[in-house]
Design a protein that fits this description.
Number of helices: 6
Largest sheet: none
CATH superfamily: lambda repressor-like DNA-binding domains
Helix content: over 70%
CATH class: Mainly Alpha
Order of helices and strands: HHHHHH
Number of domains: 1
CATH architecture: Orthogonal Bundle
Distance between the termini: 15 Å
Radius of gyration: 11 Å
Strand content: under 5%
Number of strands: 0
CATH topology: 434 Repressor (Amino-terminal Domain)
Shape: globular
Structural class: mainly alpha
Oligomer: single chain
């Protein structure tokens, strides 16, 4: 798990979410996933590559900016 945490700059996604004024619930509804999944991912607790990619695309952040 620590390897996954160090491989993504999740803080960039969370910052973009805040800039856009989006709630975890709004994102979850738009992407068809559970709010807890969005929350845990953007807090860096659970980092599944597919979910990170979906969130990055949704928030308009290129994967190259967040992959370390």
């Amino acid at each position: 798990m620590s390897d996954a945490k160090s491989s993504y700059r999740i803080d960039i996604l969370e910052k973009k979410r805040l800039e856009k004024g989006l709630s975890y619930t709004e994102i979850a509804q738009d992407l068809g996933m559970h709010k807890v999944t969005v929350s845990r991912t953007l807090k860096g607790i659970t980092l599944k590559p597919r979910t990170v990619k979906l969130l990055a695309d949704y928030l308009g952040v290129e994967m190259g900016r967040i992959v370390q």
